[in-house]
Design goal:
This protein is an alpha/beta fold. 21% of the residues lie in helices and 23% in strands. The chain has 3 domains: 65 residues, Beta Barrel (OB fold (Dihydrolipoamide Acetyltransferase, E2P)); 165 residues, P-loop containing nucleotide triphosphate hydrolases (Rossmann fold), CATH 3.40.50.300; 75 residues, no CATH class. Helix 6 packs antiparallel against helix 7. The protein is globular.
């Protein structure tokens, strides 16, 4: 028979105390001496900021995000408060301790069912959708998605049609003439200058504008012409797929040079996108950016879903009553584009709807 073992104090493990550590607290420092700055670009956890933007001591600095901000994302266009070494000297690193309230936030999701929102930029006044008229072919459904995202963010929307020397912009421009989208076109002149650039520059003056578009549409070319020191990489379109190659890897805010006494402004160039999910946009808000359709839909019966199977929908009647075939085609295209967005958000579309809408 095995004798019963007797236990003593040597069998008890005493964990050493942590008397030297400070107790946790939810009280955060006020950082009353923090300096204001604008985030211009983000690169692997480091933030390039412009300290005292527009002030007498304007300078660039490198910063990191303070731990107390947690997972809150900092994006180009954000106005932030900095502490630490804000001199901008080589080898220095400041800390971002606060993010100011944002006036606008441009978001997108991976698809129309993804619950995770991806903030692209903050505090922009207007969204400039850059679309090529050829090489690659324009994708109207992608334009519509960007229009919806822009209006949902509370931004003005501009449609910049590039490569007008390769195709007539009038047909595409007529699709957006009935709604509150400013449309302009640019083309290459005989001396390689960009015709129409001054009209675009006038729209950007005094404002913060974010440029979005597919790869290969000429977005970086426009940025380089607007901001000569930008030196953004430009790419070519694949002859087989008809798609452009990604040349910009991150969003960056660039100050517009003042020309002829114009007001200073900012352009935020973003990487090329191939899809623009709208899971963050409420279904009932989808019709508002289609202001031409919204006016027609006011005559719909109560409870009308405006979908393909909606009985007595005024949108169908509007298409049927078009005065001529050309107008009927344009109206049908507008209604189809809206209904595809509606179907993708309500779950009545196939899972590849976002990708098809981006083509």
């Amino acid at each position: 028979m095995t004798p019963t073992r007797r236990y003593d104090e040597s069998d008890v493990r005493i964990r050493p105390g942590r008397s030297g550590s400070r107790p946790r607290t939810k009280i955060r420092p006020e950082h009353a001496d923090a300096e204001t700055a604008m985030v211009t670009t983000v690169d692997r956890g480091r933030y390039t900021v412009l300290v005292d933007p527009g002030g007498p001591h304007e300078r660039r600095a490198l910063a990191m995000k303070a731990r107390e901000l947690g997972r809150e994302r900092v994006v180009p266009g954000d106005r932030v408060d900095l502490v630490g070494d804000t001199s901008g000297d080589a080898g220095t690193l400041a800390r971002i301790v606060r993010i100011s309230d944002r006036t606008t936030v441009l978001r997108r999701t991976a698809d129309d069912t993804d619950p995770i929102e991806r903030v692209i930029v903050a505090n922009a006044d207007q969204l400039v959708i850059v679309t090529a008229l050829a090489e690659p072919e324009p994708r109207t459904r992608m334009i519509d998605r960007c229009v919806v995202a822009g209006y949902d963010a509370g931004m003005d929307v501009v449609l910049a049609l590039t490569k007008a020397d390769l195709a007539d912009p009038s047909t595409l421009a007529s699709l957006y003439a009935p709604i509150d989208v400013t449309v302009l076109s640019t083309s290459r002149g005989p001396d390689r200058t960009i015709v129409g650039l001054e009209e675009l520059r006038a729209l950007l003056a005094g404002r913060t504008s974010v440029l979005v578009g597919h790869s290969g549409v000429g977005k970086s070319t426009l940025v380089n012409a607007l901001v000569p020191d930008a030196r953004r990489s430009t790419g070519v379109v694949n002859d087989t797929t008809g798609r452009g190659r990604h040349t910009s890897s991150s969003a960056i805010a660039l100050a517009l040079p003042t020309v002829g006494g114009s007001a200073p402004g900012w352009v935020i160039d973003t990487p090329g996108v191939r899809s623009f999910g709208l899971a963050h946009v409420q279904v009932e808000h989808l019709l508002a950016p289609f202001s031409d359709l919204a006016r027609v839909a006011e005559a719909c019966p109560r409870g009308c879903t405006h979908g393909d199977d909606a009985p007595d929908c005024s949108l169908d009647e509007w298409v049927a009553e078009a005065p001529d075939d050309a107008t009927r085609v344009l109206r049908a295209a507008r209604v189809e584009s809206f209904r595809r967005l509606l179907a993708s958000r309500t779950g009545n579309a196939s899972t590849d709807s976002v990708e098809r809408d981006s083509r």
